[in-house]
Amino acid sequence: MNPTTQRIVISKKYMSTPFLLYGANGFVGSEVARLAVQIGLQPIIAGRNKEKLKILSGELGLEYRVFSLDDAEVIEREIKDMEVVLHCAGPYIYTSKPMVDACLKTRTHYLDITGEIPVYEDILSRDAEAKSKGVMLLPGVGFDIVPTDCLAMHLKQRLPSATHLSLAFHSVGPAGLPPGTQKTMFELIPFGNRVRIEGQLKDPGKEVKTRMIDFGEGPVEATRFTWGDVFTAWFSTGIPNIEDYIVLSQSMKKGLAFIGVIGPLFKMAAVRNFFKLGVKPGPTPDECKKTVTHVWGEVTDNSGNKAEVRLYGPEAGLTWTSQTALAAVKKILSGNISPGYQTPAMAFGADFVLELEGVTREDIE
Ligand SMILES: NC(=O)c1ccc[n+]([C@@H]2O[C@H](COP(=O)([O-])OP(=O)(O)OC[C@H]3O[C@@H](n4cnc5c(N)ncnc54)[C@H](OP(=O)(O)O)[C@@H]3O)[C@@H](O)[C@H]2O)c1
Fold this sequence. Notes:
- The chain has 365 residues and is α/β, with parallel strands linked by helices.
- The chain has two domains: 6-142 and 321-348, 3-Layer(aba) Sandwich (Rossmann fold); 146-316 and 352-364, Dihydrodipicolinate Reductase, domain 2.
- It contains 14 helices and 17 strands.
- Strand 3 (44-47), helix 2 and strand 4 form a beta-alpha-beta unit.
- Helix 1 packs across helix 13 (316-333), helix 3 (72-79) crosses helix 4 and helix 7 (146-158) packs parallel to helix 9.
- It starts with 5 loop residues before the first strand and ends with a strand.
- The structure holds NADP nicotinamide-adenine-dinucleotide phosphate.
- NADP nicotinamide-adenine-dinucleotide phosphate (NAP) binds next to helix 1, helix 4, helix 8 and helix 13.
């Protein structure tokens, strides 16, 4: 065996699911591993940190494989007996390509939890190759973007003539963002903001745009924000104008204003790395339990018609993300496979998000 990789099989009786969870020792990855076991899956957990994987493997009774993403042949060898890889190691602008390459080479279905538009663009560019090999490429099976993507498709079904789509979410409770999400936000600053206008991704400029949105408890101010849907909902719905909004805390508003001023400095890795030193630990289980997420969407058309929907679910970054990612894995393991680049709603339909426990949808008449 190559000295850079190690495989530990827990017992001879042990039967793994042909599903490899890469980045399993990360904040979200370890939660996904725990939930997987609870729902009866036995993923092979993997990553580059042997010590952390060993502990998790001991806790959950799962086989683990230690390998980095630096050597294409090693990744191919470690995933070639798998049906599906769920990639939970980010920021994905650095980690996605080697895993996608290996998945295409070994004909393994690829899932991740990215919301990074440059990554969606890269993965889309592999669509033809994936189709020719029968491989499904499904990025974005976390909170970003399953709930909003499913809502977008549902809205399109309610108003097929829709020309404009607005989506928003509001985290209500004490849970903050997972550490990986915080790091990724710093990494994405140099790519700028995006909205979709007449089918094209455009930079909306520095203007801070807000609107009042009623998530079910009266109107609150939401701020336009770059979110994965401006890329993906175009493929899921064909609606040419797309914007995302988020309800920001006072400290996040200040942070955003500050970044607006010093934004160009983030092109330097040293600056991004400096800010990443201030990344906070992810939410505790108790904070997650006390937090819910409200999602809202609206479509309009050129004749003044409108449809509006709300979706209610659990804490977003850890709980909802882990649930949706594993629900997607289960679909694929049960043969629900569409080769090529997919969005979650294209792959599994607008009601996919409602299959998750505790998620409800409300059409606003
Ligand atoms: N879709 C969503 O809604 C959603 C929600 C939450 C998180 N996320 C995304 O998920 C990712 C993970 O978040 P997290 O909070 O779990 O982050 P985290 O705790 O920082 O964990 C990151 C994981 O990625 C691994 N990793 C990072 N760079 C790597 C590389 N170059 N090669 C191999 N492994 C690498 C780390 O391995 P080491 O321990 O060896 O460094 C670790 O296992 C982030 O990109 C985040 O943006 C998305």
